[in-house]
Amino acid sequence: MLKQVMDEILRETSGRIAKQHVERISSYHRIQASPGFRDAANWCKATLESYGLDARVLEYPADGRTTYWTQLMFKEWSATEAELKIVEPKGSARILARFSENKMSLIQRSSPTPPEGIEADLVLLENGEERSEYRRIDVRGKIVLTSGDVERVRSLAVDKYGAIGIVTDRMAEFPPIRQRTDLPDAHQYTSFWWYRKQRRCFGFVVSPRQGNELRMLIRKQKGKKSVRIHAKVVSRLYNGTIENVTATIHGRTKEEVLVVAHLCHPQPSANDNASGCGAVIEVARALQKLISERRLPKPKRTIRFLLVPEMTGTYAYLATNRRLIPATVAAINLDMVGENQDLCKSPLLVESPPDATSSYVIDLMQNLVERISKDAKSLSGTSSYALFKHASIPFSGGSDHYILSDPTVGIPCPMLIQWPDKYYHTSEDTIDKVDPEMLRRVAVLAATYAYFIADAGYSEAVWLASESLARFKGTLALSLQKKISELMDRLATFTKKAVERRKAIERFVLDLGRHTDYMASRKSESVQAISRLVEKRREKQFSAVESSVISDIRNVTREEHQKALRTLVHLLPEITDLGQVSRKKPRISPLERRAMRIIPKRRFPGPISTRFFLAKLKEKDRERWRAVEKKMRDSQNQILPVLALYWTDGARSLKSISDMTYLETGKEALRELEFYFTLLEKANLVAIRRHRLS
């Protein structure tokens, strides 16, 4: 069982070996579809083969035309030289950026300049994301300095108003871990993502300190000679290839468990995500050795390791290996897993799959984290606890697990990640920020998870069902208590507003019933998913276990719901008839009625590749979506379109889809979702059937 497996893996796994892999991988400039990425992929393949695994490099066209599902494959790009320097005023002449010194000082996928370079005025855009800013300044034929979103600035300054290049000093902030001033000399990883009709240009990245100096210089020169800079870029954008690395430990059946990490990003990018790849290679080495030495038996299912260019490689792999999708029972994604927590300030997070892909995998992973979180004992020795920061969080997306866990793919995939990282996407994400002990912890977690599922049968399935039920009981009780506490906090603001109080209570009682039913249905589905692991000859036997556990889930849900209602009666004197409150039907707004008529159906598997989706829209629709997206981002609702797409099964109405995202997140954005699906229909990514309501 689990303890014996983890003990063997703990004895064999080495964080130092994993860190050696990270150091080697981080020496490559690993831009998606580039010679540097290919060199890193070939090194990973050779290393995996040296450990006795069956490893291959898979190639896909990088031509700017091929699409896998909704993902357009970028053209291959390489750069050999780039330099940016001030030439006027002469007293301030100096080199600002040099590609040979710092790969992140160039905006990746920059187009070449003429061989001799190009000299132009540098003009200041405080932000450059709004059209109104360009009414006050002429950027045609000039290079713009901006701290705004580079893709937005490019679309306006270059595409629309004729600028020839961009200099950015943008530094994304993640309070309280990272403010702009925390990394004054770092360069942020920035890239162009070209599509067919976009006007090509070059761009450079300077540090926040350099950006401040340039701003002061431009303002000082106002009314005098312009600040002139010279830019030279030697690069190529051409038809090439993009690679995945795959390696397997063969099992006894055709089913598989997938361990994935993304290999791309500029040199050095140590924690993001050389750390994930280094950990995956160490997982492969340790498991291969344990199995070859018969310290662990050969698993029932194959364990496949997949190193990809982030998102792009996962789309390509799934689209070209559809026969493997139904055979893949589970996956795990390792993304940024080697952080030295004292330096990077980032806790280890266990991120669940989305609720639309309910699975037992998060219960297993949480159990494993608890087992490995015993670094120290209390003074009397009565308890053990972790000396590192960790937490379990709901689905957030942003990495390859968001494709695998999409219900149209159906591979449940939690993610291990350390976030937020102070040095994320900057030139200071270097090997000295990588902790071998953290790499070892994550490798042990991933190896135990993958092997346990790969070899699971009836006994493991029974244990998993029991584990899921036990965790559900605690989670449900705490969830309902949290909701009651939130209600009481809210009602405290309505002390002299009886009508508002009454409405809030009625809404809460209705939502409480929906919430408990939702949690029960999600957990029941996750228990049903466990049967996938059971041998055919014992399926009937496990069916009885499954029925018993699901019955317990319903009973526990009913009991906890009743307890919560009794608590409300004691807390709220105005509740005299809970039955009457719970029977009261909410009013349906015109927006909700309209949404009840809309039945969207997805045309492609996998999530919508956002960049390509936006490129297919007219400018007016892109501008409208940008405004809606900003509104959702400001209200921290930006995940809702992704979750809504997951709940889109061709049968649910938009109203039902919105209800499911509300139950999953506690957030509503029906109007924004209506607009989002309208745009998806215009881009021919969903079909919408509109029917009459009776």
* Mean model confidence by pLDDT: 95
Query: Which class do the helix and strand fractions yield?
Result: alpha/beta
The termini sit apart by 55 Å
Radius of gyration, whole Å:
27 Å
* Number of helical regions: 21
- Residue share in helix: 40-55%
Q: Which residue ranges are poorly predicted, with pLDDT under 50 across at least 5 consecutive positions?
A: none
Q: What portion of the residues fall into strands of 2 or more residues? A: 15-25%
Overall 3D form: globular
Number of strands: 21
- What does the largest sheet look like? 8 strands, mixed
Q: List the strand order in the largest sheet.
A: 1-11-13-12-14-19-15-18
Topology (elements, then pairings):
Elements: H1 2-12, H2 15-25, H3 35-50, E1 54-62, E2 67-68, E3 71-72, E4 76-88, E5 94-98, E6 118-124, E7 143-146, H4 150-160, E8 165-168, E9 202-205, H5 208-220, E10 228-238, E11 240-249, E12 256-262, H6 270-292, E13 302-308, H7 312-320, E14 328-335, H8 341-344, E15 348-351, H9 361-372, E16 376-377, E17 384-385, E18 390-393, H10 401-404, E19 415-418, H11 436-455, H12 458-491, H13 498-530, H14 539-571, H15 578-583, H16 590-597, E20 598-602, H17 610-615, H18 619-634, H19 640-646, H20 654-665, H21 670-682, E21 686-690
Parallel strand pairs: 6-7, 7-8, 8-9, 12-13, 12-14, 14-19, 15-18
Antiparallel strand pairs: 1-11, 2-3, 4-5, 4-10, 6-10, 11-13, 15-19, 16-17, 20-21
